[in-house]
From TrEMBL:
Gene3D superfamilies: Ribonuclease Z/Hydroxyacylglutathione hydrolase-like (3.60.15.10). Residues 22-124 form the Metallo-beta-lactamase domain. Coiled coil: none annotated. This is MBL fold metallo-hydrolase. It comes from the Bacteria. CDD domains: DHPS-like_MBL-fold.
Amino acid sequence: MKATVIVDNIGNERIFGEWGLCIHIEYKGKNILLDTGASSLFIRNAEQLNISLKDIDFAVLSHAHYDHGNGMSDFFEINDKATFYLQEGCKENCYAKKWVFRKYIGLPQGVLAAYKDRIVYATDNFEICDGVSLIPHRTPHLEEIGKREGMYQKSSTGWIPDNFCHEQSLVLDTAEGLVVFNCCSHGGVINIIREVSEAYPGKTVAALIGGFHLYNKSQKEVRQLAREIQKTGIQYIYTGHCTGKKAFGWLHEELGDMIKQLEIGLEISNI
């Protein structure tokens, strides 16, 4: 397996960053695209990194927020073959609440209908191909997290706290163990590790890659999470995007060399 970060918050002198995430993955001869960032920036960055978007075999959306799916239409225009895998709960209905206002933070309006022939909705533990699966949330009461974070879904009956039924983990089975990608981990890092472990009884979760949504958390909360991560036995953590600079620093103080910072151009292999 080899994963290359195409879009993250942290760029460099020649490749720009944005509030979003996009990762290219090579696995057993397959080219996989995970998310498309918050704009068409992923196209330019992929060119800079010598990654051909036309050669992507299939794409995966981690969850239905704009900073991960705003480039979907651009991808479909560039690549005319790849299926895009979404969790079955994905709709254009995600909002963030601030005071009495609700701001739309979901996928581009109309994209699901416009490209319905290119989209497959994953259900249960969904195997895409040998060694590659999508795992949904099974932890109960995740709507409590949605309410706490001020994230809501607009339904036919009104506003409901987001239970992250649109979020999924992309799991690769490698010689080192299971490598899990979950790009914002809204459902909870520890919940995700447990959910994947339960989906693969007898296998070890070796690595978790993605954002942890800690930018708005206290030092106490972040350090407590780090101690809980240590108890899981996981070996490698690569995190960025919505984790935040301060939170990463606190995690690093607790976890040491097992945690690495995501940034554009970073290559992750030998897991």
